[in-house]
Amino acid sequence: MSALTGLAFTLIVTRNLAVAEFGVWQYLSALFSYFAFPAGLLTFWATRLYARGQEVGRTALLGNLALSMPLALAFALSAGPASGIIAADPAYFYLLSLQFPLYYAATMLDALAMGRRPQLIGYGIAAFELAKVALALLAFGALRLGLTGAIGAVIGAYAAQAALMARLQAPALSGRADLGLLRALYARIWFPLLLSLPYFISTLDAFALALVSRSAEALAFHKVAYSAAMFGMNTAYLSIGLYPKLLAGGGGVDVERALRLSLMISIPASVGLFAMAGPILHIFKREYESAAPLLMAMAPLAVSASLNNIWSSAIAGSERVDVDINASARALLRSRLMAWPTLSLARGLLSIALVAALAALLPSLLAWPHPLSAAFGCSLANLIADASTAAAGYRMAKRSLEFRLPSRAIAKYLLASIPMGACVWLLRPERTPEALGAIAIGAAVYSAALASIDGEFRGLLRWLARAASGSIGPKAG
Q1: Same structural domain for residues 168 and 213?
Q2: Main-chain dihedrals φ then ψ at residue 476, nearest 5 degrees
Q3: DSSP characters for 196-236?
Q4: Burial of 186 by CB count in 10 Å (0-12 exposed, 13-18 middle, 19+ buried)?
Q5: pLDDT by residue (tens digit) across 95-123?
Q6: Is the residue at 350 inside a domain?
Q7: What is 290-335 written as a DSSP string?
Q8: Sequential DSSP letters for 134-146
């Protein structure tokens, strides 16, 4: 559902903002993410400690809210120099600074849910996505607020997510804050800071594109294509339960199960995105259909995102060094907890270097408009960096846990994707309703093809049918 509502929100925004305005919004969102990345520092320890029985909820939430305040102020103060790069209105920075405490609260509440009740994260995502769509419809349909409405809709959505997750986890947030524990968490903040640094660097590709191209349109083309690719990349969430499962003592069989479930969806998603790149982008707005090569280049990211999420969970979830909260810095740095962040750091640096090089080089080589060719360079950079990370991550994961790559299952998913891809390619829809219909037909063709050759998929369909009919669940007694 989150993929559908996220797509709906992006459609509402792109259809109501000019290409340049959408590029400004994506620039603001990228800058927000740079200032907001400390939201994940305390969450690292909160998830691991809470999953192992320590009651850290209230302390961790208050600690994260305290972190948000200076970052919100710094973001607002950055409005002057940052807005000049692509001629954005500084007022948007001041408005977006209100999002910081809500984002930090929602991030910590999700981290606590991940520790013991990861299924609650789905409810939080649903609240966020539904509120975002509803508020966007209000902002654009009734109030005609433009870019201000897009920013306000996201702020309101984070408020809804935080409120619901706090309500669902009220017992975890009861009691008094433990200042001693909070001091211990802050004293250990350096370690998740190291872990977060690769993520922070990996997000700089949008800023690099803005610096090289000096074009809001280039950012708009890249981000619209990336948003469409995200529809497939969201399949990575299918393995969301793997990390807590491994923390609780799971093993290689859980990794194999996660691989089959994720790739069962991400492989046909990649094929479908490639085959229908133009019609899918037309759904956003006619002007974005020219960005089809960007989406075709990023279509495989659905598979790499699923793989990388599983590899990172296998590597970090199998490590036990931090069972002792007083483990030495040397022990933490030498543990597998640093393996994936180190690889992610290399991925981020590679991506930035490739973006800077390709976004500068391709406009002189391609007979495309400058913003489009610069954005294509950013898409290619993401593809190369993610594919390299997936290959290296597989080797790391194999050293952490014993598991087998489900090659036979992967072959079945690829085989079932062939008729699906051919079908949607031949349909060549030109209008939005036709494109949505082609997607539905493609999904049906893939499901039928896979059901004819894969017993596990047939079992999954039977389970879903029983669940829909209400025959699965606790019986009254």
Answers
A1: no
A2: -70, 140
A3: HHHHHHHTTHHHHHHHHH--HHHHHHHHHHHHHHHHHHGGG
A4: middle
A5: 999 999 999 999 999 999 999 898 899 89
A6: yes
A7: GGHHHHHHHTTHHHHHHHHHHHHHHHHHT--GGGSTT--HHHHHTS
A8: HHHHIIIIIS--T
Q: Angle, to 10 degrees, between the axis of helix 339-365 and the axis of helix 370-400? A: 160
Please give the Cα distance from 409 to 261 (Å, whole number).
10
Residues 182, 49: one domain? yes
Q: In terms of residue numbers, what domain contains 164? A: 1-188
Amino acid identity of 56? V
Complete DSSP assignment for 156-168:
HHHHHHHHHHHHH
Strands (E), 216-338: none
Please name which of 347, 326, 94, 296 lies closest in space to residue 191, comparing C-alpha atoms: 326
Of 188, 219, 235, which marks where a domain is finished? 188
Which pLDDT does position 476 carry in this prediction?
40
Run of H or E residues at 91: helix 91-96
What is the maximum span of the chain, computed from C-alpha positions, in angstroms?
73
Total domains present in the chain = 2
Do 206 and 272 have their domain in common?
Answer: yes
Q: Cα separation of 360 and 362, whole Å?
A: 6
* C-alpha span between 218 and 376 (Å, rounded): 9
The tally of CA atoms less than 13 A away on the side-chain side of residue 244 is 20
Torsion over CA: 403, 405, 409, 410 (sign): positive
pLDDT in tens, 325-381: 666 767 777 777 778 888 888 999 999 999 999 999 999 999 999 999 999 999 999
Closest by CA to 104, choosing from 41, 174, 150, 28, is 41
Angle (CA) 365-368-373 rounded to 5° is 70
Q: Which of 188, 219, 244 is the last residue of a domain?
A: 188
User: Is the separation of the CB atoms in 23 and 215 below 8 Å?
Assistant: yes
Question: CA torsion angle for 305, 306, 311, 313 (degrees, to 10)?
Answer: 100
Query: What is the chain's alpha carbon radius of gyration, rounded to the nearest angstrom?
Result: 22
161 plus 202 within the same structural domain: no
Assess whether 121 and 201 both reside in one domain.
no
Read off the pLDDT of residues 126-152 as tens digits, 9 standing for 90 and up: 999 999 999 999 999 888 899 999 999
φ, ψ dihedrals at 335, nearest 5° = -85, 175
Q: Which of 220, 218, 223, 216 is nearest to 371 (CA)?
A: 218
In angstroms, the Cα distances linking 390 to 96, 274, 302, 397, 454 are 34, 20, 12, 10, 26
Residue 131 lies in a domain: yes
3-state secondary structure of 272: helix
